[in-house]
Each structure stands twice: as structure tokens, then as C-alpha cells.
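Format notes (please read before filing issues)

Several people have asked whether sequences and C-alpha cells are stored in separate files. They are not. Every record keeps both together, in the order shown below: the sequence lines, then the C-alpha cell lines. Line labels are part of the format and must not be stripped during preprocessing.
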Amino acid sequence: MEKETIIDLMRHGEPEGGTLIRGWQDDPLSETGWSQMREAVSEPASWDRIISSPLTRCFRFAEELSEKLDLSLSTEDRLREIGFGEWEGRLPAELYEEHPEAISNFWRDPVKHTPPGAEPLEQFKLRVEAAWEDILSRHQGEHLLVVAHGGVNRLIIANVLGIPLVNLFRMEIPFAGISRLRIGGGIPRLVFHCGSDLV
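Then the structure lines:
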């Protein structure tokens, strides 16, 4: 019988600068962000390895954790967040004030309403899903921690559950939030957790 693959998707903590429209902008974690992530894994699971987005807000924590737990760490460039183009680094409130219709349209239907200069959602989907398929192929039967971004983790969950791309932002993933996916045994499953029961 094929061994089940377990993947814990972890979003980075709060970056410096607070809540901005932040995709490829490479801000480090704030002190709060470091605390959020360390607290989220205060009782670590029995991971076999860690895979991280190369962006600083993910990789620096993944690097620290891999050294602490003596785990192999690799980066996957295709797990970078979606690029927001001209909206990068902007406060959502500013965008609602300056471009209320454009930002409302984006959240309602991000497939048809790409921000100026941004990465189209369909293109984002293709690169993240390619990375996901490669991860599953290379690490079958392992228990992985994948440290990435809100958009990336939403996309992977949507892929596994068959959620339409247009509904991607109906999922709310908090800073340092962890979502577990079990792959194998018929159908893939999203597992909800209570407290620190990640073992």
C-alpha cells in the first residue's frame, strides 16, 4: 500500500511594515512575525524536511528552524508569492481610496481583473501547481513543512479541494497559519487542527 504524504503549509509571519499589498517585495519578518512563527511550531511535528519560498519573510525562519531541528532545507523559487505589480508595497486603505473599483473588482474576480503590471492569476496558478506536482513526485511518503505565502497556500489548497480560481481569496489564512494536507489513500484531504496537535 502506498504510504501517505503529509504536507504542512505554513504562511510566513507579519513582515516589517505591517499589512501591505506585498507580493514579490522582499520585506523581512518583524519581531512580531518571528514570534508568531516560533510560537506556531513550539511543539514541532515529525517533519522529514523543510521546503521554503526564497523570499526573506519565509526563508530566514525556515533556515532557523531547519538548523534547530537538524532538517534538510531547500528553496523552491516557484513558491514565491503572486506579484502585485504597481500595487506592491501599498496600504490596502490607500488603494481603496485611490482606486476603489479596481481593487474591489480584483478581490471579487481576480482572474479577470489583474492589477496594473501584476502577474496574471492564471500564470501564478501554473507555476505554483507545477511546483506542487514536483514536490509530491519527489517526496512521496514523506512529511514535509512548506513555508510559503498566503496566496501560494490558498492556491495549493484550492487545487487539492477543487475550488474555482475565482474564489481563491475567500480563504483567510492568518500570519503563521498552518494547514495540513494528506495526500494518498484515495482522495487528498485538508485537515483542520486544534491548538498544537500537529504531530
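For reference, the curators noted about this record: The helical segments are 31-40, 56-69, 92-98, 100-108, 121-138, 150-161. Strands lie at 5-11, 49-52, 72-75, 143-148, 178-183, 189-191.
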